[in-house]
Amino acid sequence: MTGEATPPLQLHDIQSGVLRPRPNPYVATYILLRVDDRRQGRQFLRLLCDVVTSAATPDRPDRDTWVSVALTHAGLRALGVPAASLDSFAWEFRQGMAARAAALGDVGASAPGQWEAPFGTSQIHLVLTGVSPDEHRLEAAIGQARKAIADLPGIVPVWRQDCRAPPDHKEPFGFRDGISHPAIEGSGIPGDNPHERPLKAGELVLGYRDETGAFPPAPVPDVLGRNGTYVAFRKLYQDVAAFRRYLRGNAKDADDEALLAAKMMGRWRSGAPLALCPLHDDPALGADPARTNAFLYRAGDPIGYATPPGSHIRRCNPRDADVAGVVRLHRMIRRGTAYGPLLPDGVLEDDGADRGLMFAFVGAHLKRQFEFVQSEWINGGDFLGLGDAVDPVTGAADGSGEFTIPRRPLPRRLRSLSNFVVTRGGEYGFMPSLAALRWLADLQDTGA
Predict the structure, then answer these.
(1) d(Cα 124, Cα 96) in Å, to the nearest integer?
(2) What does the alpha-carbon distance between residue 141 and residue 25 come to, in Å, rounded to a whole number?
(3) Is 50 exceeded by the pLDDT of residue 1?
(4) Once rounded to an integer, what is the mean pLDDT over residues 108-113?
(5) Considering Cα of 214, then 219, then 225, then 230, what sign does the dihedral take?
């Protein structure tokens, strides 16, 4: 019933990786594991109960270092989770990301058939993530899990990706990253936009009311679903050389290149938003966390003369812009970490290196959060009256796309948009609570 009181967030039971923003600077590692022996899999989860940190005690000295674990649907099955529980998870999660490829725009070079192994298969059971400000603390945090993996032959590492913050804190395309993080009601962790009300906890964590006033559907039994959430993992390769060539081919000079890049992203490369400095970059603003995300669109820029409606950041978070639908129902936590060597400045030809971002999109509603934003806001334009125009930076462009920059007296149009970002792999995971980790570790086989 909607009249029931919403319980306070049980931070001691929620994984820190659900609510806590990524530190900056950072190092991170993602390890995919396969469970070949269900009893050893349960034993491994039991050991992880002492490794995975909770979102409680936010003032602890090591609060910016955390290890988290997520399980795929195949992983839950491999651990022997009962059928009734397996069938109670969200439909999208049960299908897996590869099966959702068409809806997500993972076609062509991004199609599952082109993904790195073992993505797109049933061989991914656990996703172990470690994040820290430095290598020493990361190794200390994740070392116990690595030792357990070495001691348990039934737990098989099948893939790993190491990430780190570039020296200038910019992602491979050259833009400052890790800027936007929403506040979650009851978490005690502030957001970075003072104009945005904290989201209801149920948008991010199961067992609490969401923005509709209802409790999100959760797996059963209650101990398995409560205080857990869903996460969409993505490895996204960035074709930096192609992006630079596109800018060079459509700009009049170096200053115009910088402007076009900013218009496509919605921010200057320093991180300074066009909404606050539309005519020129302001590195001091871009480096100021108290100001760089403190803006809205509708009051000062309804047409998009400063920030084009089709720009990347306005699509991913329209804030107060007039769009089809309720923006707050599609908010989620986005957490990206860069991998691979940077392409040297000025180089326009690809050097063959693998570079890009590992992304984790966290939310209680896979369908109306991650999948909606990906299909309707990134790879569609109807919600902003843009027709079939896709995101100019991350959209699934086929070489015929257009991007419009509102301008007086006539808009500026960029044509022949290419695919600058390619999906190299992805999977849906469920991040259980610490109590659910113990429940999974204590599962018993029946009928044996």
Answers:
(1) 11
(2) 17
(3) no
(4) 96
(5) negative
The strand ranges marked E within 123-282 are 126-132, 155-164, 229-238
Distance CA 260, CA 405 (A): 9
How many residues belong to the chain?
448
Question: For residue 11, how many other CB atoms are within 10 A of its CB?
Answer: 20
Rounded to an integer, the average pLDDT of 112-131 is 98
Q: Can you tell me whether residue 240 is helix, strand or coil? A: helix
Token code pair at residue 59? 């003032």
Cβ neighbours for 448, distance < 8 A, ≥ 6 positions apart:
none
Rounded CA-CA distance 202/2 in Å is 13
Token pair recorded at residue 14: 């929620």
Indicate left, alpha or beta for 314 from its phi (over 0: left) and psi (-120 to 50: alpha). Answer: alpha
- State yes or no: pLDDT of 241 exceeds 80: yes
> Residue 8: what pLDDT?
86
Per-residue pLDDT tens over the stretch 245-275: 999 999 999 999 999 999 999 999 999 999 9
What local confidence, expressed as pLDDT, does residue 325 receive?
Answer: 63
User: How many Cβ atoms sit within 10 Å of the Cβ of residue 348?
Assistant: 14
Residue 183 is encoded by which pair of tokens? Answer: 């506040």
User: 128 near 67, Cβ under 8 Å?
Assistant: yes
Express as a percent the part of the chain with pLDDT over 90.
Answer: 83
Note whether 175 and 269 are within 8 A (CB): yes
